[in-house]
Amino acid sequence: MADLVVVQGDNKPDVIGTLVDTLTGDPLDLSDVDDVFFRMRKADDHRWTINAAGLVTDAPNGKVSYSWGANDLANAGDYEAYWHLVYNDTTQQSTDPVNTIEVRRR
């Protein structure tokens, strides 16, 4: 079962998440993050369907969000998604494990 199920052609609800340290389970402190990206692609494809800027909504508690673009959910199917962080010292981190998203046919 997918972590998130959305309907083809919709653009709500926004994707929201709490990023956690995989070792401790504690929320990541995103206070030093300059950029956050939401990345999504079909499970059987290496090309990104979405590689777009997201928002840090609560840095100390690791909360992020992404608002779907007009055509982000145009195609039904199974997708993988994760967050990519760029810190102010230019280091980078991608969340793991990837999340699964099902875009259900309308």
Structural key phrases:
six-stranded mixed β-sheet; Immunoglobulin-like; about 110 residues; three-stranded antiparallel β-sheet; mainly beta
Task: Please outline what is shown here.
By secondary structure, this protein is mainly β. Helix content is 0%, strand content 47%. It contains no helices and 9 strands.
Helix count from the secondary structure assignment = 0
Strand % is over 45%
CATH C-level name: Mainly Beta
Query: How many domains in all?
Result: 1
Write down the CATH topology.
Immunoglobulin-like
Give a written overview of the molecule.
This protein is mainly β. The chain has one domain: Immunoglobulin-like. The protein is 0% helix and 47% strand. It has strands spanning 4-7, 15-18, 33-42, 50-53, 55-58, 63-66, 77-87, 92-94, 99-104. Strands 1, 3, 4, 7, 8 and 9 form a 6-stranded mixed β-sheet that branches. It starts with a strand and ends with a strand. The model has no long low-confidence stretch (mean pLDDT 96).
